[in-house]
UniProtKB/TrEMBL annotation:
Keywords: 2Fe-2S, Iron, Iron-sulfur, Metal-binding. Pfam families: zf-CDGSH (PF09360). This is CDGSH iron-sulfur domain-containing protein. It comes from the Bacteria. Residues 28-72 form the Iron-binding zinc finger CDGSH type domain. InterPro entries: FeS-contain_CDGSH-typ (IPR018967), MitoNEET_CISD (IPR042216). It comes from Myceligenerans pegani.
Length: 75
């Protein structure tokens, strides 16, 4: 990748969600995350990795379990 091919950075108020192949969803920006009861889940970083494989020990966050449990995504 050259300097001319760099991906533009989102604005501070923009929210993006990117699916990592065979891994988590990367959430960037000021999105609010809530649990199944509608309670806020505290965030301590601007970018967080959300589990898609269902095997994490620290939901909703990814702990890398997808690397050992054979999770495969379509994207």
């Amino acid at each position: 990748m050259t300097a001319h091919d760099e991906v533009p950075r989102p604005h501070d108020d923009e929210v993006t969600l990117a699916a990592c192949p065979d891994g988590p969803l990367l959430l960037r920006g000021p999105a609010r995350i809530v649990d199944d009861r509608g309670r806020d889940v505290p965030r301590h970083r601007a970018t967080v990795a959300l589990c898609r494989c269902g095997g994490t020990a620290i939901p909703p966050w990814c702990d890398g379990t997808h690397k050992v449990n054979g999770y495969r995504s379509e994207t």
